[in-house]
Design brief:
about 425 residues; mainly beta; four-stranded antiparallel sheet; 32 strands; elongated; disordered N terminus
């Protein structure tokens, strides 16, 4: 981090094979920034606006902004006394995680207020020989489960994968000759790193293969930087910084590496780590409640796919492992429960309270030849006996599927397992 008026420490380009954990820029430092050498042309019109959340090292505060008008929309949120060089949202963009510098501890940051949570777990498994270095980057995988972390230590950077909830990470590979100051993963699972030692973008295989140089960014990358993809169109955005408060909001070309400046950020006098508020659909919900095997000798399953955020639209429910060509529909309630063999059914009802039924036009389904059926359900319109209602943020709803069945030639019915979803 740039040693500005706050007197904070920084990450600087290493001059030798030693990684400086604190390198004050100093009031007498001289930098000649010949911007004629950089790609300062205005960017082409950008895609739909996305929100940005981040941390300003120079002024020790969290902030909010947007991709369409970064400087005008820049809004400080909360003062934070802990430095974070690694920060990203989870795959559903419902929680913002950050890893502090010393010790390397996981925190969450409130996406509305910018305030820190209570300290989380210490990160383990990230020291794979050599100097200790420092955690410089964190990025979520679109699989909704894996996290990737970079630890820079002089002339190399180690890449680890793991889980921010537990803090447990495992060494994956070493990137020699590069001080990666941040990493970011696109919606297809391709991992990129920004090198402050060579001012270039590199592509990092998460499995077998060699690290490849994408190309120079044509911008003097010094101290801490921010970088993240908008998964809606896989645009790679960056908050680039050169020291002395001089910086720019830019896009990075993942084919050439070249930075296209969207707008200078020097007027903000800020050095920033950032995350784009974007998400991919992932498996959502937790299964609960035992089911009774149906006539296929298996228990019916229920899964959810989508986003738990109310504003994001719908979640696709899928009931599977059902008898073929069997009619059924979904149920929901704000209360879980347990009733064995309700109404003579072979199964267990895992709901209680006011139970809604998805029996409107097109909502009664057949399992067909696949033995499954699906339905998109909206958190803004959940059926209840008195009419549809909307879920409230932080509220958990419970779902189950009922279906017709036959045992020994006698008609009956059964239920899948239950699925609980916390909407945000």
């Amino acid at each position: 981090m740039d040693g500005g008026a706050s007197g904070a420490n920084c990450i600087a380009r290493p001059a030798v094979d030693v990684f400086p954990l604190a390198t004050p820029e100093g009031p007498n430092a001289v930098r000649t920034l010949s911007f004629a050498l950089f790609s300062l042309a205005s960017a082409a019109p950008l895609a739909a606006q996305a929100d940005i959340l981040g941390f300003d090292f120079r002024n020790d505060r969290t902030f909010r902004s947007t991709t369409s008008s970064f400087v005008d929309d820049y809004t400080p949120l909360a003062s934070v006394a802990i430095d974070f060089f690694a920060l990203d949202l989870n795959a559903t963009a419902t929680r913002l995680y950050a890893i502090s510098t010393a010790p390397n501890r996981v925190f969450t940051i409130d996406m509305t207020t910018g305030l820190l949570s209570s300290p989380g777990p210490i990160v383990t498994g990230i020291f794979n020989g050599g100097p200790n270095g420092i955690v410089t980057g964190l990025t979520a995988s679109p699989d909704g489960q894996t996290w990737w972390l970079s630890r820079a230590a002089g002339s190399f950077t180690d890449i680890h994968s793991g889980d921010v909830e537990t803090g447990i990470f495992t060494f994956v590979r070493r990137v020699d000759g590069e001080t990666l100051i941040d990493i970011a993963m696109d919606s297809e699972g391709n991992l990129f790193g920004l090198s402050s030692s060579n001012d270039r973008l590199v592509r990092i295989p998460t499995g077998p293969g060699s690290v490849t140089v994408v190309g120079p960014v044509n911008y003097p990358v010094e101290f801490a930087q921010g970088m993240d993809f908008d998964w809606d169109d896989d645009t790679l955005y960056a908050t680039l910084y050169s020291g002395g408060g001089v910086g720019a909001f830019a896009t990075l070309d993942t084919n050439s590496g070249i930075a296209t400046i969207v707008e200078p950020t020097t007027s903000l006098d800020a050095e920033m780590e950032m995350a784009v508020v974007t998400f991919v659909d992932v498996d959502v919900g937790e299964t609960y409640c035992d089911a009774i095997p149906n006539s296929t000798a298996t228990t019916g399953s229920l899964t959810g796919f989508g986003s738990p955020r109310i504003a994001d639209g719908s979640v696709e429910l899928t009931a599977a492992q059902l008898p073929l060509n069997s009619f059924g529909y979904f149920l929901c309630s704000r209360v879980s429960g347990f009733v064995a063999n309700p109404g003579g059914s072979q199964g267990n009802l895992c709901l209680a309270g006011s139970i809604g039924r998805y029996v409107g036009p097109g909502e009664i389904k057949s399992s067909g030849l696949a033995g499954s059926f699906s339905l998109d359900v909206s958190a803004g319109s959940l059926p209840q006996p008195t009419g549809p209602i909307s879920a409230v943020s932080g509220e958990t709803w419970y779902f189950q599927a009922w279906h017709r069945d036959g045992v020994g030639g006698a008609p009956t019915s059964n239920f899948t397992r239950g699925l609980s979803i916390e909407f945000l």
